[in-house]
Amino acid sequence: MTSGLIGCASPPPKQFTRSATEFTPCSSAPHCVSSQADEDDSKYVAPFAYKQATPAAARQTLLDILGASDGATVERAEERFIHATFRSTLGFVDDVTFIVQPQAEHIDVKSSSRLGYYDFGVNRKRVEQLRARFNAQLSAQA
Predict the structure, then answer these.
(1) How far apart are CA 123 and CA 43, in angstroms?
(2) Is residue 94 a contact partner of residue 112, using CB atoms and an 8 Å limit?
(3) 22 lies in a domain?
(4) I want to staple 5 with a disulfide (CB 3.0 to 4.6 A). Which of 50, 51, 80, 91 is the partner?
């Protein structure tokens, strides 16, 4: 790895969540999306719905998808919380976190760049791609 790439990595945020069911909010920078943002906010993305699966099956489906995703590393996987990192070919790291919400039958998602101001829509696109794969895999299992 070259020294130029080392500068692209920074430590993860000190805190991802406010509580067991709530993420910390996105910063004002446009490099973050969250299913817990207000629906009329530009940072809003829909959660991953799993009405036809159990919370455990939905969680495992998500972990399988993350495990097969290029540049992804699952850093932490608890019963209701998952933290994954995505590293670009240039060495930039994005944090993607998930909270399984059993009563609501969905998984909340937040994706944010560690560095920079703009992400050129990378985090939104990644979440949409992960959701599409999640929905397709759940449909195939039904």
Answers:
(1) 10
(2) yes
(3) no
(4) 91
**Which residues are CB-neighbours of 35 under 8 A, at least 6 positions away?**
44, 45, 46, 47, 106, 108, 109, 110
CATH (domain of 114):
3.30.310.80
The secondary element (H helix, E strand) that includes residue 99 is: strand 93-101
Written as one letter, the residue type at 40 is D
pTM: 0.88
**Tokens coding 111:** 């994706």
Q: What per-residue string of b and e applies to 79-107 under the rule 16 or more CB within 10 Å gives b?
A: eebbbbbbbeeeebbbbbbbbbbeeebbb
Kindly report, residue by residue over 53-105, the tens digit of the pLDDT: 999 999 999 999 999 999 999 999 999 999 999 998 888 899 999 999 999 99
What tokens appear for 130 in the block?
A: 């992960």
Domain count, the chain: 1
- How many Å separate Cα 133 from the centre of its chain? 13
Give 68's contacts (C-beta < 8 A, 6+ positions apart). Answer: none
Tokens of 104: 């609501």
Tell me how crowded residue 2 is: count the other CB atoms within 10 A of its CB: 7
